[in-house]
Amino acid sequence: MGSPAALDTVLPVRRTERLSGAGRAAVIVGVTGLVAYLTLVPLGFLIYGSFFTPGVGEQPGIFTVSNYLHAYTDRSSLPVLKNSVVFAAGTAATAFCLGTGLAWITERTDTPLSGLHSALSLVPLIVPGILFSLSWIFLFSPRIGLINLAVRRAFGLTDPLFNVYSLAGMVWVEGLHWSPLAFLLMTAAFRSMDPALEESALMSGASPRATFFRITLKLAMPTTLSVMLLLFLRGIETFEVPAIIGLPVGIHVFTSKIYLAVKGYPSDLGLAGAYSTLLLAMSLLGIFIHARVTGGANRFATVTGRGAVPRRIALGRWRYLTAAVLVGYLGLAVVLPLLVLVWYSLLPYYLQPSVRALDLLTVDSYRAVLTLPAVRRAAANTLLLALASATAVMLLTAVVAWITVRTRPRGRWLVDQMASLPVIFPGVVMGVALSWAYLRLPVPIYGTLWILLLAYVTRYLPYGVRASSSALLRIHTDLEGAAQMSGASWLQLFWRILFPLMRSGLVAGWIYVVVVSVRELSSSLLLWSPGNEVLSVVMFDLWQSGHPQEVAALGVLLAVVLTGAALVFRRVAPGG
Amino acid sequence: MVYTSMDLQESRPLVEGFMRVYPFIRVDLYRSTGEDVAQRVISEYRGRRFAVDVIEGTGTDVAKVIVEGIGRTFYSPRAGGYPRQSRDPHGAWVATRYNMLVLAWHTGDVAAAEAPASYEDLLNPKWKGRIGMEADDQIWLAALMAYWGEQRGLAFFRRLGDQHLSWRRGHTLLAQLIVAGEVTLSPTIYNHRAESLRSRGAPIDWRALEPVVAFPNTVTLARRAPHPHAAMLFIDYLLAPEGQQALARLGRIPAHPFVKADPPYLNQGFVYRTIDPQRFLREYAKYNRIWQELLVRTR
């Protein structure tokens, strides 16, 4: 202290404004540029393409607005859009309630078995969508569903109790599938929460329930909104569950329109693009609302200068109830479908569990999978890609979050918007856009692992951004101020203060991106090349060639390995 | 460099067989769905990257590539023995294997004697709500319409659409659901799949409804193949009895007229019809409309 520079810091100037310097400017410009590059290249392709008819052979595509006219005036879209919105809203609500409730139970109460739950909670996210949906058919189909048969036998009912082939069934399956995302992000929010307000509420005689709804949830508002937004957009964009469960009973969703446009001949990417702009509009609106509500950073700051570890609420006798909820969820969302998968993978073909079926049990599919040379190479590639893309996504989005939450340049929200754009791309369109771009641009990454990395990073930026910015919104600015007062440079500030404080949010995002990168299929299918196989492509290949048992075996192995890895990782990374 | 829609487990023995004959040629395989193969080749050519030598895949997707001017006519001494419906009259493609669409059913629900013996039998009211259909088999409809003529075809498909069809995406999924008993029967099952499941003891059986629709898988030579001579050797091998027998051993149905499928009744003892993939593509919009309106009935 004493130097003019140090004196300077005491002046009541906006502290973030004062972190100026060449380094900081370079980081802002660099990251913004990178995000813009990653997201605007495919977006440009999408928009440009949406104004053309598909070109065939010598006949080039011609400029047209008919794609938009068709997409926005087609009356048959309306009911389909309604289905999509109901489905997505239902999914978001289901996944959010489940994920949040579970996060609160495991993080903030003294419920037994919390550790077990955290370990197993990722499973629904890991299992490939087609298998997850299939196992629900095996469980809840009116004809062959195991649960339905069991209930019918037990109570002598004539009508099946559950029907998976319904909008409710779709919401249930998809909601369970995505509940781990809500769980991960909400866990991070609860973990880094200053307990002062909750404690005051409890002290003033509020019941734990009132405290949860009126204090805890409200404090977690930025994360809540982020999670809801992500889940909703996912629900709009998703394809697997509607294709497997909705299609047989004629419940069509908006993405089927996109699918049909791409799948037809000539493949109408332009029309698909025009449809996607509708998703774009929805996502922009969502982000706008999010920014409105979470404006005024410190309102939601729960990590302040006062060190404090969130207190776990002693539930007393109620904790057996919450433990029952955990076990119930695990049983339904994890153990039941996983058991069906294991059963499926151990048989030469699907059979209802019976004595006869027991004789047929075999580990052939596991042996087949483990001896396939492509599997080993693909596993190595997948591992590399998943780790690299998750790390890149979280590093990039931490800075993006900082730019949008902490700095003041005009148009900073644009960076957030840009980073959130890819959520609207159907995977196929992203694959086409990237291959198209890198066949022309003088960047020699086509046909290498790099183009897959680029695809993954781009696709999962939106999730990273939501995780990071909600993590940053929880941190009070006074900590940065303190760091600065002590003369920390911008890099030091970031590396030694912000990163560690955002850790729980970043780790949650990181785990999520790792898992979804392992699953990514629709872009990978188009972008992989010999020697660069990834696991999802190999699984798809096995599925297509009529070896679903092998796919189930790989899915089970993947669930075991990734869950184990997540467990170890949580142990090793404190606060993670 | 070969781009194919044949899956890895099946293409590997084929490639190994080829490399035993020509040990100095290395084969790189890119395998994906038919659509993605076509999409990739077309993108690459538009971006002026000429990496692919041989394109093998579903007839329609190879036809897309040919329409783009990426395939080229080629002469293979092995193609001469193939029947006319397995060859392009202009010499741009030859069929390598067939996917035969037959009727398959869950044996727990339906006895063989009771199962439909003709397409008309599918219209029997007792099958209402029990027929599963693959969601993207427009070519099946097109081939049957071409055989029956427009009027009879439309009448049949309109009545089939009244049967409350249960739509499933993907032939693998559909076959699995028949085995599981979720779907009772379906006329859009690949017979080699049904056969392989049946031979493992699964409760599924199949029967040819005449005429059986056969999807051809075809091969073409890329216009700017970087290794045209090696590519021709590969195509020759694929079409020769050796390559065709290798396919048959894998349970696939060879296109070669004298190579027997394994078991032989996979392509013998019934009439099958195929369709010129290029013609199908030209009229895709029409067939797709009929498909969506009469069968899928999206509202």
How helical, in percent, are the residues of chain A?
Answer: over 70%
Q: Over all CA atoms, what is the radius of gyration of chain B?
A: 19 Å
Treating each run of at least 4 consecutive H or I residues as one helix, how many helices of chain B? 11
Q: Extract low-pLDDT stretches of chain A.
A: 1-19
TL;DR?
By secondary structure, chain A is mostly helical. Chain A has 28 helices and no strands.
Topology diagram in text:
The complex is a heterodimer of chains A (576) and B (299).
Chain A: H1 4-8, H2 15-18, H3 22-50, H4 66-73, H5 77-108, H6 114-120, H7 123-126, H8 129-140, H9 146-155, H10 167-191, H11 196-203, H12 208-219, H13 221-237, H14 240-246, H15 254-263, H16 269-294, H17 318-345, H18 355-360, H19 364-371, H20 373-406, H21 413-420, H22 427-440, H23 449-473, H24 477-485, H25 490-519, H26 524-527, H27 535-544, H28 548-572
Helix pairs in contact in A: 3-16, 3-20, 3-22, 4-16, 5-10, 5-13, 8-14, 8-17, 10-13, 10-14, 10-25, 11-12, 13-16, 13-23, 15-16, 16-21, 17-28, 19-28, 20-21, 20-23, 20-25, 20-27, 23-25, 24-25, 27-28
Chain B: E1 2-4, H1 8-21, E2 29-31, H2 34-46, E3 54-58, H3 59-67, E4 71-72, E5 94-106, E6 132-134, H4 138-148, H5 150-161, E7 166-168, H6 171-180, E8 185-190, H7 191-199, E9 204-207, E10 212-222, H8 228-239, H9 241-249, E11 253-254, E12 272-273, H10 277-282, H11 284-296
Parallel strand pairs in B: 1-2, 1-3, 6-7, 10-12
Antiparallel strand pairs in B: 3-10, 4-10, 5-8, 5-9, 5-10, 5-11
Helix pairs in contact in B: 1-9, 2-3, 4-5, 4-11, 5-11
Which features does this protein show?
heterodimer; A: 576 residues; mainly alpha; 72% helix; globular; disordered N terminus; B: 299 residues; alpha/beta; two-stranded parallel sheet; 39% helix
Please provide a written account of the structure.
The complex is a heterodimer of chains A (576) and B (299). By secondary structure, chain A is mainly α. Chain A has helices at 4-8, 15-18, 22-50, 66-73, 77-108, 114-120, 123-126, 129-140, 146-155, 167-191, 196-203, 208-219, 221-237, 240-246, 254-263, 269-294, 318-345, 355-360, 364-371, 373-406, 413-420, 427-440, 449-473, 477-485, 490-519, 524-527, 535-544, 548-572. The longest helix of chain A has 34 residues, at 373-406. Chain A is globular. Chain B is an alpha/beta fold and 299 residues long. Chain B is 39% helix and 19% strand. Chain B is built from eleven helices and twelve strands. In chain B, strands 1, 2, 3, 4, 5, 8, 9, 10, 11 and 12 form a ten-stranded mixed sheet that branches. In chain B, strands 6-7 form a two-stranded parallel ribbon. The mean pLDDT of chain B is 89. The chains are: A mainly alpha (576), B alpha/beta (299). At the A-B interface, helix 8, helix 22 and helix 27 of A face helix 1, strand 2, helix 2, helix 3 and strand 7 of B.
